[in-house]
Amino acid sequence: MQVFEFSKARDVAHAVQLGAQPGAHYLGGGTNLLDLMKGGVERPRSVIDISELPLALVEPLPDGGLRLGALVRNSDAANHPLVRSRYPLLSQAFLAGASPQLRNMATVGGNLLQRTRCGYFTDLSFERCNKRLPGSGCAARDGNNRMHAILGASEACVATNPSDMSVALLALDAVVQVRRRNGARSIPIGHFHRLPGTTPERDTQLQPGELIVSVDLPPPGFAQHCCYLKVRDRASYAFALVSAAVALSLASDEVREARIVLGGVAHKPWRALEAENSLRGTRLAPEDIQAAARLATHDARALSDNAFKIPLAQQVVARALATAAGVT
Length: 328
Fold this sequence. Notes:
Blueprint: E1 5-8, H1 12-19, E2 24-27, H2 33-38, E3 46-49, E4 58-60, E5 66-69, H3 74-79, H4 81-86, H5 88-96, H6 100-103, H7 108-112, H8 119-122, H9 165-171, E6 175-180, E7 183-188, H10 189-192, E8 211-217, E9 226-231, E10 242-251, E11 254-263, E12 270-271, H11 273-279, H12 286-295, H13 309-325
Parallel strand pairs: 1-3, 2-3
Antiparallel strand pairs: 4-5, 5-8, 6-7, 6-8, 9-10, 10-11, 11-12
Helix pairs in contact: 5-9, 11-12, 12-13
């Protein structure tokens, strides 16, 4: 770990001022940043401690939605009465992530900023990693790529986003609230994370110095029929091979609205719009569910070691849809 300057932010404005300096990183829970610093992957010139800023509240919004402060711990968010009652899909996703110990430290804002998952990125002994060294190549494309992307990948990068929370947030149409030196802006969660394209070193649309202050959820609309299903190599503390956040709005057993978002398959949470559209107006007969599951992966492209993810993703979507709808 290289030498860096450490500062403690007095308030949000002070944090944004400090964060605008080149090479600055914000520190909340530190569950991802500190690991990357120890491994030499992240080498900040300065670290700004924001852990004592007043951003750890869960608050109702005037429109009936809910605001999660950026410093709310994952365990606190998962177990908050308003999250559990109004947004059970999000609570399920939080509880599927990491271990209880890590959930007690990890924050909502930090969860959004987890670096995409790839062993070639986190291991400095591999020189070819466009995410770490732009222009060096992608070792995963012809290497061990069992955990890697089947959707939205590029020649430059096939890494996957590791966040469970973000998958559920996309299904719920959340909005990320950001502060910067010249004001504030709102970023719909669907535009927050990036596909790799030719610049895989950028995981999100955040600009240098911008600080996440909250995540806003719209008024609840999917509390009754939802499911977060995560398939992984072991029962806990493992990243998803494939996950799915499914939410349904039903009227007389007919689908009025559907949300299907996949995790563990792309550089960002992947919303399956064609699959969603295919379900509107159906009564979720077995053939409707299977057709939607196939549509969820119709653009998938397998690598040498991860072709199994395509049928697995279809099975996960089908199972999550059936569970959310109460179909046996």
